[in-house]
Design brief:
The chain has about 140 residues and is mostly helical. Helices cover about 55% and strands about 10% of the residues. Helix 1 packs across helix 2.
Length: about 140
């Protein structure tokens, strides 16, 4: 009777039959209208069983919570590493300062105390350090 015109009490009523189909399919839980019942736009026709979707949502929410926890842990680790890098930089500056001071003291002592048994090992170590010292450190 799709598109049929019916006369009732002098009124002309056009009937329209529409096929109802869900885009993704699913299991119908409840049909809210009877066959042949007149409906309007926006009326609830059917309800779908959402058990599988509810389980999928719960699983995704759990995975999301784990991902958020991992992200927070990684942010904390990043902050810790940045702090460690800063401390390393400070330590390198202190080591270089100590080395420069040692170098200056040994260089000052060498001309006058080269034969001193206490100065000789320091001079040897300083020469060794100088031979392996990277050019960009100093």
């Amino acid at each position: 009777m799709d598109g049929t015109v019916i006369l009732t009490d002098g009124e002309i009523v056009e009937t329209k039959t529409k096929a109802v189909q869900h885009q993704r399919g699913g299991t119908v839980a409840t049909i809210h209208v009877a066959e042949g019942q007149q409906v309007r736009s926006g009326d609830l026709l059917v309800s779908f069983n959402t058990t599988d979707l509810d389980q999928q949502i719960a699983s995704l929410e759990t995975r999301l919570a784990a991902a958020v926890t991992d992200a927070e842990r990684l942010r904390a680790l990043e902050a810790h590493l940045a702090s460690a890098a800063a401390l390393r930089g400070e330590a390198l500056v202190k080591v270089k300062t100590a080395y420069d001071l040692l170098e200056a003291v040994v260089d000052e002592l060498l001309p006058t105390h080269a034969s001193d048994p206490a100065v000789e090992p320091l001079a040897h170590r300083l020469a060794l350090v100088r031979s392996v010292r990277k050019p960009n450190t100093g």
